[in-house]
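User: For a benchmark we're assembling, each entry needs the component sequences followed by a predicted structure for the full assembly. Here are entry 17's components. Please fill in the structure.
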Amino acid sequence: MSDHKFFTKKILTENPVLVMAAGICPAVAVTESADSGLLLGCGTLLVLLLSLLPATLMKNIITEKAACACHVIIIAAFTAVIQMLFSSWFPQVTEEVGIFIPLIAVNCIVIESVNGFARKNPVLPAFLNGLGTGTGFLLVLLLMGIIRELIGEGTLFGSPLLAGDITLLPFAVLLPGGFFLLSLLAALNKHINIKIRQKEKNTINNDREEEKISS
Amino acid sequence: MKEIIIIMMTMVLVDNIVLAKALGACPLIKLSATAGRSALVGLTVTFAMIVATLLTWPIDSYLLSPFDLEYFRIFLFIPLIFLAGYMVTAVLKKAAPSYWESMACTGHLISANCAVAGIAFINIDQGFTYFEAVYSAIGAGLGFTGAMVIFAGMKCKIDNSNNIPKAFRGIPAYIMALAILSMVFMGISQAAVALIS
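Assistant: Structure for entry 17:
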């Protein structure tokens, strides 16, 4: 398929969180406020991109058995770097996110992308795939964080938006509320995907009919 | 003795690793099938947690913390956690090869998931001693197994029902079921807190 498809399909039709159910743990536990969601999404994207590149470049040099160990060490190293950087650039938000920054290294998204895709494909498709996966993850986290913080606490990135001390639905900030919102987003995504697939099928059918008419 | 029981009850009922901390949600949603297979996966994850704690706790308390080397934690822990998972799945492959084939190569998801890694880091953050850390890992694994077996039953009901709207079939329905289970669990945990204290 054309290269840009590797990027675009990961955002909507094969979103890692909403369709492949791959990064649910951080997506629900960290999005209680919008800035922690944004931070973890950016962190995962950075770790993903940084560990992809060595994996694709080295794929012809390392044997199959050693590849797994190499990838684990590379991912762990970059996660440690990202943790050090984030804890000095954004100390309060990193405190909120807590143990989920070390857990970027065992995130299913990162492991599947590095071990599964990057090891078998050339550099550009692997990079675009990783970029798309990370961006899809970041968008979901940002959206969930914004919605949960707005509805649950009335603030947005820390600054109060709704007048007074109105909290619409404090349930949204708790863990079950996060799962609830995630399932609603996943259902919305599936609905959009069904419509996209129907449209594609209709265009294919229309093309076939036109061919029959013209021939 | 009392502290051991309190720690384990806390990890299972009050601070369940899936339902209160959302750390094991990925294997829960993807791997629970029948009750038997869920129990086996839960047992594997419990062993992985125990081995991971056994390997990582001494490294931190004897090599890292006394010399102020906390920033090395991730870099040393993550390969050890993967090693723990690899050992546990290798033992499982030898001991029960038919079950391993039926689980169809989901190696990373069972052995090195957020739950196992999370326990290794949580034990350090909460300042447990070596034995307390191992008991906490056992408790977390038991909590995970319990949640997984319950969720397997819910998944069966969802798969057999006819009334789910098209957009909700599959993963959205499972996540919604997990939301409701987590809500129920919040009530149980309040009761457990009252019981324990």
